[in-house]
Amino acid sequence: MGFWIKDSNLGLYADTLDTQGEEFIFFHESLCVLSALDYLDGELGMPRRTTVFSDNSNTVDIFNTLAASPRINPILMAASDIALESCSDFKVLFVPGIQNQIADALSRFDFDRATSLSPGIKFHRFTPPRIALGEKV
């Protein structure tokens, strides 16, 4: 997983988790959005308004509708809790994969490519927030 904070040219990356059969990419894309919000809130102070870009349309859809499967709902609930507790607002917008190359490079631990795309980028490992996954229905 990986996300990039453009304003501070900060690239964050983490290993993927065992999802116990959950759709691999969708789960991790959703968890990465939550991780970005959690990082902003905990490390940088959650801005009043935040925009997160994702190249996964399912992830964009669940954050915009606040509707997901029972196993993904805890991710939405945790993101909503961050927004409510910090009195902030966030939106998740779709960006084509070709425009999401830095995050893609970070998720693949391809630091040379990330550096070539954003010279001076600083890299940090992050730990995704712990959430209790809902039961599979």
Beta-strand segment tally? 5
Q: Which blocks of ≥5 consecutive residues have pLDDT under 50?
A: none
Work out the radius of gyration.
14 Å
The figure for the number of domains is 1
Which structural class fits the helix and strand makeup? alpha/beta
Strand order of the largest sheet: 1-2-5
Shape: globular
Q: Which fold name corresponds to the CATH topology?
A: Nucleotidyltransferase, domain 5
Which descriptors would you attach to this protein?
Nucleotidyltransferase, domain 5; two-stranded parallel sheet; 137 residues; alpha/beta; 18% strand
Tell me what you see in this structure.
Helices cover 42% and strands 18% of the residues. With 137 residues, it is α/β, with parallel strands linked by helices. Helix 1 runs parallel beside helix 3 and helix 4 runs antiparallel to helix 5. The protein is globular, with a radius of gyration of 14 Å. The chain starts with a strand and ends in a 12-residue tail after the last strand.
What does the secondary structure layout of this molecule look like, with pairings?
Blueprint: E1 2-5, E2 10-13, H1 24-44, E3 49-54, H2 57-65, H3 73-85, E4 89-94, H4 101-107, H5 111-117, E5 122-125
